[in-house]
Every structure is written in C-alpha cells, then in structure tokens.
Design brief:
alpha/beta, globular
C-alpha cells in the first residue's frame, strides 16, 4: 500500500492561496488528508471545506502549552480536561490523532520522575481516548535548535513513557526532522518501533524546508522503508516551502508516494 500522506496547513504561508483554492490544489495533487495544530471556532468550517475537496482531517493538538506540559503534575487536571474536550472534537470530525507534549524540563526534576509524571498524565486521558477510538500521540521534538528545554527529545524517552502508560491508544508522533537533529538513524529507529508510532512528520534538515537535494535526509528511502515495514499511519508534511507552495507540495507527494 502507498504511504498515506497529509499536509500540515499552519506551517504553510497563510497568504499563498485562499483556503478553498489551497485545499483543492492539495486534493488535486493526490493527498487524502490535512492536519493542523490548534483548533478553534473555525475548525468545523475547515473540516467542512476539507470534506468538500475529498480531504480528511487526521491530526490536531490535544492540549495547549507545549512548553508547560505533562511532565508537571500541577498541569494534569487542566490537560486532562483539554484532552477530553479535544477527544470529543476529534471523534465528531473523524480526526484520528491528538498531539500531546511532555513540556520543558523542570529544574530539580530528574528524568525518571518526569517520565513517570508524563505517563501519569496520559493514563488519565487514555481510557477516554480508547473509548472514542482516538490516539494520543506524544510528540518528539528537538531541544537543540527549535525547542530549547523540551524534554521528550529522544525516542527512548518517549518509549519509556509509553511503556508506563500501557495503552494501545497512546503512541509517539515521530518527527523525522526533529529526530534527525537529536539522534539520526531514523529508518532503523522507526522500523524497530513501528507499533509505537501513531503519526509521522517530515521536513528537510537543515532548515525545515522542502524535501529536496539541499538537505541531508533521503525521504524516498525513508518512506520506502516505512511502506515495506507495514506502517499504516499518515506521513504529514510539516515543512516551510521556500518557493511555490503547490509545486513544493507536489514534489513532496511524488517523492514519498511509495
């Protein structure tokens, strides 16, 4: 089966095309889906516009404050409430996954305690996610370039959280760009932990731009490896186009259409 691909709308230049035109172009390229970060009162309208163009919404953020997240027990009441609201929204609009965040490292808190805290926070929302068929995807981000201080910045850290949560509906959002910066070895890591990955993001490194020959990742090889390993989730393109938006999205789709 070909890799299922999606487009992350918020990272694109917002003045490039009117929304309806952009969605029509995305669909005409062959993409089956889009995704966003946060959601607001306009979210139902965006979902309706996507549906008119034959597109599915597959991922949204599950809670706010990515820097002040699940590793802090003081946030658990708030985040559980936000996740329950987001699960309701996701279930109503056919969204498969919600993005969750560890938060930044807290002075005086060791890694084991932070992992346990993050797992505890996710366990509180996991049964409701399971009941509604929604996956909570803990995102791996780099703390070297884009997100200084972010704690879930290595695959092993995220896997340790998942082991403690022990829910089929809590997985990792494996961001290839971020993990290339932090640890590399992305094909081996993803294929070895495929059952723990609920969603994948792309971008060229360095720069977080197009998936072209100015960056160091072989995305055709990566997507071929994911396809061969049986990955069934989405690969969401989360790069900032430097040139024509539609041309860049078409190039990425064709590259990863394995």
């Amino acid at each position: 089966m070909p890799i299922k691909q999606s487009v992350c709308i918020p990272i694109l230049p917002q003045d490039a095309l009117p929304r309806e035109k952009l969605l029509a172009e995305i669909a005409s390229i062959g993409y089956p889906a889009i995704e966003i970060w946060g959601w607001d009162d306009d979210f139902p309208g965006l979902c309706e516009a996507a549906a008119r163009n034959g597109l599915r919404m597959v991922s949204i953020s599950g809670h706010g404050t990515g820097t002040d997240g699940l590793n802090n027990p003081a946030n658990h009441d708030r985040i559980e409430a936000e996740l329950r609201d987001a699960i309701d929204v996701a279930a109503a609009h056919g969204v498969a996954g919600l993005i969750c965040f560890s938060g930044n490292r807290i002075q005086g808190m060791d890694e084991e305690a932070a992992i346990a805290n993050t797992a505890t926070g996710l366990r509180r929302a996991a049964p409701y996610a399971e009941a509604n068929g929604i996956t909570l995807n803990l995102e791996l981000l780099n703390s070297k370039v884009d997100h200084p201080g972010y704690q879930c910045d290595h695959t092993a850290w995220g896997l340790a959280v998942l082991q403690q949560v022990n829910s089929p509906n809590v997985k990792l959002l494996y961001d290839i760009y971020h993990m290339q910066i932090m640890e590399g070895d992305v094909i081996r890591t993803m294929t070895a932990n495929l059952d723990s990955i609920g969603h994948v993001h792309t971008a060229g490194n360095p720069g977080r731009n197009e998936l072209d020959d100015t960056q160091e990742l072989n995305y055709r090889g990566i997507c071929r490896a994911l396809s061969s390993a049986g990955y069934e989730g989405y690969v969401g393109h989360e790069f900032r186009p430097q040139g024509d938006v539609v041309a860049s999205l078409r190039q990425a789709f064709e590259l990863c259409n394995i």
